[in-house]
Amino acid sequence: MSVRLRQVRYQSSTVIRIPGSNIYRLGDSNFASPVFSNVTWTAKDGESWAVIGAGSNQKTALLRTLLGHFRITPPPAPSEGGLFPFLAQADPPRDPHTNVALVSFAHRPRTSGTGFYDYTARYGAVREEDRITLRESMFGDHDYLNLRPNKPEDQVSKSSEELAVEERKKALFEEMVERLGLSQLLDLPLVALSNGQTRRARIVKALLARPELLILDEPLTGLDVSNRPKLLDILHNLHVARNPRVLLGLRLQDPVPEWITHLALISEKGVITGQKDIVLEAEAKRSVREERDSQSRSSNASSSLSGSGRSTVVDLKNVSVTYGPRQVLKEINWTIREGQRWHLRGPNGSGKTTLLALLTGDHPQSYTQLGTSRHLRLFSRPRSRIPTPHLRSLIGVVSPELANAYPRRAGVSVWEVVGTGFDGAFVPGGLDGVGHGIDGPLSDEQRRWRVQRVREVMSGLGPSSWAPKQLHDPTADSQTDVDTHGGKLKASDVTFAERDFADLAAGEQAIVLLMRALVGRPRLVLLDEVWSGMDDSMVRAARAYLRDGGGVDDDQAAVVISHWEEEVPWNTGDGLRRISLEDGVATCS
């Protein structure tokens, strides 16, 4: 790296030190079950570390331990530098609270609130509040980036050293936005950018805070194939220069960068630390075997899902989307039929999110695609001919936007959240928590069917399919059938269904929103970054349920939006089709 921000003398080469300690939740006594037992972890300068967890929640818990969100007992000895010896023994000493930063891409932002917000606003960018640019949103508080005029007294009050630091930070900003492909995006409306683009901007913002240790939790999530190596190369160079040191948090299914030398791997046996090759050889084989077994079972049960001759679900002919002079989608032609399985892929900013918004009818320009030379038809009708509540009942959606927007209100149970999927609603209601119905009050037969469907998806995707007994219900036999809502479920699934949705971990919330998307057996299922935040065991259970367990029937169409080919539950043997976007141009194969 050509930019150096600080000159600090470090007297210790030990970056992190946990000396065989138990890790507890704050407020728990030493008699409580620890989150992690007997953790021994020493990370030194010259090493490159990643934390990998079969469970996304456990991985994030270990990373948040470094920020003081969990209690370490016995704590690292202050005489040996505490948790961060390189900071405590620096000259001058550095405060961990201001020099260790965590940027997480695995969880819903805490500032999102508990209520619903209109996540479709990004598709129009027509309101005044939607004109806020990426530069203003992410970097508006840095006056040295010339985002707003400086007052003369501001410059006079700053020392020459402060001005020099700002110049170096400005140079770093310009270098990072250029290398991460953000230069041309800085003055675009934030709502018009893709998830991958805003994630790259968050990393730049974190670097401007000048941490000594930057922890990135799932930085590859949502990044396209072309941008992953660029980001990893930048992070590697920063880490080698200690400007700042970088610690990665990765999912078990993520590829481990070549430059990573050491791993802290969280498994059923606890936290295992050491050299990468040794840790992977000792621990990763189990997951590989389980995945292969799952794929083998899936291939034995698979069938062709070509969808030939079936009813048309979506029909796009020469569909284009423009924002002023900028053309986001260019004459898209795409037909989706019942029973078909599609993989939608493309780099960040290629138009995937916009295309998805057309399929759901959320994009304002879905109403304007009319005429003989171009059209957009959903279920054989123009968008304007389908009432929005009715359309939402026909399409099941999982997406980062919906996950961020879905309300986290206290007192709303998992069962009720799943039940909102029948009507595509965001507020639970109706007898038995299964909605009121789109076309008038539900008949007793309709209500009983809905209750049965909630039980079915709860059985297929609930904790009995993915969680060890001791994690989801230590007092009950998870395989015991329990009466609930006029039927039976496993005890662990009943307990899960009764929990508050807002209290669930991120991965648990993700799988509940997948249940919500599937429960009404919608004619079209759209799965955008569906595995984000899920534990490895959840991913395996969900893939098996979608492919073989009745999650998506032969008369339903499904589209998976993902950068990763291996994340798609179906393959070409199942009749999987692909549509690729590049600069707004679609190619089907």
UniProtKB/TrEMBL annotation:
One of its GO terms (molecular function) is ATP hydrolysis activity. The keyword Hydrolase applies. PANTHER family: OSMOPROTECTANT IMPORT ATP-BINDING PROTEIN OSMV (PTHR43117:SF4). Residues 18-293, 314-589 form the ABC transporter domain. Belongs to the ABC transporter superfamily. Residues 296-310 have a biased composition (Low complexity). InterPro entries: AAA+_ATPase, ABC_transporter-like_ATP-bd, P-loop_NTPase. This is P-loop containing nucleoside triphosphate hydrolase protein. The keyword Iron does not apply. Residues 285-295 have a biased composition (Basic and acidic residues). Gene3D superfamilies: P-loop containing nucleotide triphosphate hydrolases (3.40.50.300). Keywords: ATP-binding, Hydrolase, Nucleotide-binding, Transport. Residues 285-310, 463-487 are annotated as: Disordered. It comes from Coniophora puteana (strain RWD-64-598).
